[in-house]
Amino acid sequence: MKVGTFLCNCGGSLDNLDWDELQSFMKDKPGFCVYHESLCSQEGKNFFKETVNREQPDSIVFGGCTPKTAGSLFEDVVKEVNMSPYQMVGANLREHIGWIEPDKTLATNKAKAVLLGSYNKANYGTNVEKHRIEIQDAAIVIGAGPAGIQAAQDLAEKGHKVHLIDRNPYIGGNSAKMGTFFPSEDCATCMPSNGIKGIDQSHVRRCHYRSAFDLHPNIDLYINSEIEDIKGSLGNYTTEVKVKPTYVHMDKCINCNLCAQACPVENPDEFNLGMVKRKAMHLPVGVSTTTKYVVEREECPDGCTECVKACPVEAIDLNMQETTKTINAGGFVIATGFEEFDPRLVEEYHYGVPGYENVVTQTELARLLDLAGPTLGSLKKKNGDPVESIVIINCVGSRSTKYNIWCSNICCMIGIKHAIKIKEKDPNIDVTCCYIDIRAVGSNYEEFYNKARDLGVKFLRGRPAEVETDGTTLYVQAEDSQADQFVTIKTDIVALSMSMVASPGAEELAKKLKVDISDTGFFKALYSKFKTTETKKAGVFVAGTAVAPADIPTSLNRAGYAASHLDMLLSKGTVEKKFPTAVIDDDKCTLCELCVTACPFGAIEVIPVANPGVKMQVDPVSCLGCGQCVSTCPAAAIGVDYYSEDIILSQLEGLLYDAKDNLDPLIVTLACWECAYSATDASGMAARTRFGEVTPETYDHTVRILPVQCTGNISARLIQKTFAMGADGIIVLGCYEDKCHYDSGSQASTIRVALLKQMLQFSGIDPQRLEKQTTFFMSSDRFTTVANKMAKTLKELGKLER
Amino acid sequence: MIESTELIGEFKGLYDKVKLCYQCGTCAGGCPVFKQYSRFNPRRIMEKLLAGEFTKEVFEEQQIWYCTGCYTCSTRCPQGIDIGHIINEMKNMAVKVKNAPEGIIAEMTAILETGVTAGISQSAMKRRVKLELPELPPPDLSEIQKLMEVTGVVAKLNSLKEHAN
């Protein structure tokens, strides 16, 4: 292995290092060492290229600015000399030394250690195996509500094949039941994506009332269907879908209703609150643009074919069978939406209790206000009696440590929308809206709230304690907290604004897709600030209310965002994975399967082999190279390219080369390459601006920093060996546990360090010699505080006796 | 009145228990006392705790003693705050600073001396005979007094009486 060392003075900003001494130090090592005043200048880059072309090194050490900067500054140049970025190992002489340590002798000595460490790593050989991933140009969108349809239409318009799957026999999801949406107060099923056979170029919002099923030609729709099984990873997923029969060919049905007229079976219509009857052959969500006729087959009398005879277009096939379809796709959009929280669980409002039939949910109230609903749009009680007053109760099941902790985002506005609808139809109906806070946070929402007040809707600040009945009338008991008064409101109907909870089956689907469900039960997005529609599984996106409660505009925005990101992936055809991957040594592996559970990305699978029966196999596509398997493996059988234990140990050997002779106790900081390493750079940058002063950003010269992929990579073994090699103290510097770039690595390392500290005590080593700290770029003081504290402690404790 | 600093730690504990309260009024809306008497408002008591104005409730006013301890508020609170228990704790603090209404002192004295807060009325006795119900055994006064002695109720009652005089 020929290692070429390039030293750079950063234009003279590192003059407090003794460059002559560093050069002569490195000249002893096999390979070559050159110095340049400013390597990133055009002249410097030419010098770099000429030297590499002449000397032909196998790998390079770059001694100068932080590898975070050098990596991007020299990316093109490294490519030009036909090397991979992983063949260049950085030695951070600037942020970690030159800008921190004013004392020339101390700084130069630390620079020697850092250079030697990087030299050892480069000398070990650090290239990373590349993996090419073929991406199948097809997407599966799960859930055909507003978000699912939007995502499917967007992807289809971009030219991708889309398979849109919904378990209901209709499309539109919850919107198909809601009638109208706020704040536009128009059809809930009127979506930009519905029935336009491609994106409408005319820029005019058009009414497509009968054409919600006229999806883009690139979309295959599967209604009444469920996902059975999903296999594969990014780019190549194989999905089995169970398609249950509706007994009506959707493409032929013209919704003429002749079949329903001929059908002899009548049953209560659950969709219309059981207030009216429906036939066995019926529209599952009433008169809607998002449904065709469906037969409830188990209700059919034996041998009855009345509907078939009545159908003028031969759309009905009562012998339709359940089928299973296998679909291959490159990625997913999950748009499984939400359902209303079970209102029976909030017992004091007595939903579902006999005598309380007129306590309804907002979705049910929407039916009572729908022209096509059971009361033809005029608000009536369940028994058909007229209504004089209604009370709307907000936050039922939301904002509660007892039920659901979250604000469900849309309930205030749905309540207001229904209040306005009622008042506009009949101003004499008394409408009271009981609330805790009105959250009208969207565009035009506050105006909408004002409109309700203009129309005479009463707003009462107080969450009702109980709904009671005398058999005919409901009594809502509450405190009017603005008047400090107890009130009992006599009313005919109570409408509960139920909390939004994740769609049933979300958890099961998450297991099949190997993605996470968050504490709220909704799908967990990769990150809370950005990547809000990505999941931890590459190629699997989440949109609409499947990720969190949202109104329609936000749901659709998420859908577009998810579709656009999936489009970027599908359009590539192939992607190249250029970062490290875990490699399992089958000879060392004891088949304990701990790595399978340790991997947060489901990248390690147990696969059958002839001998010894099974083996652990890493899927290089799903593996992100964090090394959480490495630190869990009791047999030390797993390594990660570029950050394997052997590589880290050889680097440590250089970093601690003077441990025996150095009278000061030395501290090794094992820093995660993401936020934590950046924080160490940030302290250098901050110290630079006030050079020579003791600032909170400077830290002791005995602190030496070594990057790892993730603190989850750091095993007990590595800690033990680091102490054995001469470290007197170790700081494990990771990202915040909840912001770990590899899901759970920092959390795992925090637990591991806590346990190790106990073990240190048993072995007679002061546990203060090992600390875990979390930080990020903007909070570098968290690093310097713990570094300086440990340096002070170690000066009292002295060097570790070995 | 003893120095309030003694109770500061306890008040801090109460604040921690009530800090999730967003004043929705569910407690007041379900409170059987508030329905009849709007000056006793459990939501307002929680508000005072949140605002740090709780000392007046304990040291000067006697509103908390209207609480019947039915715990409807605790059952209904959407944030799971045990309001009934918090008011009980405030009653305990009030006793520590010897601020209890006469009625409470009289009730405690009645239990100590007769074993009950209110004896059975003559008419109730007559009804029992008519319904052929067995005679009620008298309360075991020595046991009740012993219980009140060892739990410290007697000592508290004495100090309250002393303060009242």
Describe this protein's structure.
The complex is a heterodimer of chains A (802) and B (165). In chain A, 29% of the residues lie in helices and 22% in strands. Among the domains of chain A are: 1-130, 3-Layer(aba) Sandwich (Rossmann fold), CATH 3.40.50; 138-244 and 322-337 and 503-572, FAD/NAD(P)-binding domain (3-Layer(bba) Sandwich); 351-496, FAD/NAD(P)-binding domain (3-Layer(bba) Sandwich), CATH 3.50.50; 581-629, 2-Layer Sandwich (Alpha-Beta Plaits). In chain A, helix 12 (411-425) runs parallel beside helix 13. In chain A, a hairpin with a 4-residue loop joins strand 24 and strand 25 (474-480). Chain A is built from 22 helices and 38 strands. The model of chain A has no long low-confidence stretch (mean pLDDT 92). Helices cover 62% and strands 0% of the residues of chain B. Chain B has eleven helices and no strands. Chain B has helices at residues 5-18, 26-30, 32-36, 42-51, 54-59, 72-76, 83-96, 102-114, 122-130, 141-150, 153-164. The radius of gyration of chain B is 19 Å and the shape is globular. The model of chain B has no long low-confidence stretch (mean pLDDT 89).
Structural class of the secondary elements of chain B?
A: mainly alpha
Share of helix of chain A, binned: 25-40%
Top CATH class of the largest domain in chain B: Mainly Alpha
CATH-level-4 superfamily name of the domain at 138-244 and 322-337 and 503-572 in chain A? FAD/NAD(P)-binding domain
The oligomeric status of these chains comes to: heterodimer
Rg from alpha-carbon coordinates of chain A: 33 Å
| Largest sheet, strands/sense/barrel of chain A | 5 strands, parallel
